[in-house]
Amino acid sequence: MNPQPAVGVALPERVHAPDTVQLMLYNAILWNGHRIHFDLPYATEVEGYPGLVLAGPMLGDWLHQVVDEWLGDAGMITRVEYSNRGATYIGDQLTAGATITAYDPQTGDLSLDVFIKNEAGDIVAPGSIGAKLYG
Amino acid sequence: MTGLLSDELLANIGRTSEPRREIVTRRDIRKYAVATGSKIAKYLQGDVAPPMFHVPLFWDVVELDELTPDGVSVDKLLPKFPLERAMAGGLEIDYLRPIHPGDWLTATRTLTDIYEKHGRSGPLIFYEVVMNIEDDEGNLVIKEKTTRILR
User: Fold this and answer.
1) Nearest one of A29, A24, A47, A50 to B70, comparing CA atoms
2) How confident is the model over A5-39, as pLDDT tens digits?
3) What region does A77 belong to: left with phi over 0, alpha with psi -120 to 50, or beta?
4) Residue A2: its pLDDT value, please?
5) Is residue A75 part of a domain?
6) Can you give the residue ranges of every domain in chain B?
7) Does some domain include residue A46?
8) DSSP code at position B145
9) The CATH number fitting domain B7-150, selected from 3.10.129.10, 3.40.50.410, 3.40.190.170, 3.30.420.40
10) What is the ipTM metric for this complex?
11) For B59-117, how does the pLDDT look when each residue is reduced to its tens digit (9 = 90+)?
12) A26 at interface of B, judged by CB pairs closer than 8 A
């Protein structure tokens, strides 16, 4: 599929509903031993969270994936800026999406607004991505 | 405005970590792609690293007795701040070229700024850490700026 960039176009969304196994594997490849991601009694009874907390950078990765899946081999991501606005948990269903905000056909430079939203529609990770389509 | 930031604390701006050199492997790329739920074949096969692969590549590896009881490795680049509760932070990353298996990369982290703002609920401390990642020829491959907020 060749990307057809135009300002205002929304990219196909992707729903993520990670389970405990995925979260464990993610933190394992990071070598992140933070208990809030795998120790449910600790996360709930000591830290007072409603469940196991998803790792913030994993949501950051999903922001990239939405754009990267659409780009295919036609370009590459050159820049990202995002923030994690609040905690998310195992059991949450999170939707990643993006909208093109600028496109220069001369240079192939693209800008996109990207987001992760929860089931209530609240944006939990807003950001923007810059990409370049190869000539 | 009464300042929380002493001259002694601000003198930490510019502190730099020891450079860390790591090798990129196909196996680590594949594990990362699987764990993030990627559907992109070139990452799942480990032919090229996805964006943010530098996060697992340079996550600190410390011995068990250096972890806090909640399993966290303390960031030795940071001074002790007068506020300690971490709020959401932000990330800015520039990707200058793709990363492949066999690449040796070196990361250097610098504490580039500490500043204070007054939010509705009281004072906030912001700090910024820049991580520059270079290849063995000294070319910049990734530049990452993390901003964290303490209250």
Assistant:
1) A47
2) 999 999 999 999 999 999 999 999 999 999 999 99
3) beta
4) 73
5) yes
6) 7-150
7) no
8) E
9) 3.10.129.10
10) 0.96
11) 999 999 999 999 999 999 999 999 988 887 899 999 999 999 999 999 999 999 999 99
12) yes
Which residues of chain A have a CB within 8 Å of the CB of B92? 79-81
Is A71 contained in some domain?
A: yes
Task: Tell me the residue range of the domain where A115 lies.
Answer: 56-133
Q: Which two tokens stand for residue A33?
A: 């031993």
Considering only the beta carbons, identify the residue of B39, B71, B96 that sits closest to A34: B71
Note whether A85 contacts B: Cβ–Cβ < 8 A.
yes
Q: Which of B26, B91, B141, B147 should be substituted to probe chain A, the one whose Cβ sees the most A Cβ atoms within 10 Å?
A: B91
Percent of chain A with pLDDT over 90: 96
- Residues in chain B closer than 8 A to A42 (CB atoms): 70
Instruction: Calculate the alpha carbon distances from B88 to A48, B48, B140, B145 in Å.
Output: 17, 30, 28, 14
Q: How confident is the model at residue B1 (pLDDT cuts 50, 70, 90)?
A: very low
Residue A16, chain B, CB below 8 Å: the answer is: yes
- The CATH number of the domain holding residue A109 is 3.10.129.10
- pTM of the complete model: 0.95
Mean pLDDT of chain A: 96
Q: Which residues of A touch B96 (CB under 8 A)?
A: 78
Rounded Cα distance, A37 and A19, in Å: 11
> Most A CBs within 10 Å: which of B28, B32, B36, B99, as the mutation test of the A interface?
B36
